[in-house]
Specification:
The protein is α/β, with parallel strands linked by helices. The chain has 3 helices and 4 strands. The chain is globular. The two termini are 22 Å apart.
Length: 106
């Protein structure tokens, strides 16, 4: 069924993270100054490249998040649940798949 296998890049130091002309998502546990995932990943951009940064259990530090926001990432909430680290990419992939397929059924 899968025609293209997603390419995952190596894990890098937070200072080396770069943005590109894509959707730049910073998964944040912060309750203030964040956009909900439904406002960041949309049907109009779900086919774009996605740069995703998420932290370890307990999230990134405020300093790390501030650095990433300065680089162009959007602080994003995935909802009220706190997800395990390994669950975050699966959730983003599921949302993206839903959005891509929803275009076909409109």
């Amino acid at each position: 069924y899968r025609l293209v296998i997603p390419k995952l890049e190596k894990i890098i130091n937070i200072n080396d993270v770069e943005t590109s002309d894509s959707v730049n998502i910073l998964c944040s546990l912060d309750k203030c100054n964040v956009k909900h995932i439904s406002r960041v990943l949309t049907p109009s951009n779900c086919n774009d490249k996605i740069s995703l940064v998420f932290g370890p259990e307990g999230g990134l530090s405020t300093k790390e998040e501030d650095l990433l926001v300065e680089k162009g990432f959007v602080k994003t909430s995935l909802g009220s649940d706190v997800l395990r680290t390994e669950t975050v990419p699966l959730m983003i992939a599921s949302i993206r798949k839903y959005l891509k397929e929803s275009v076909y059924y409109e």
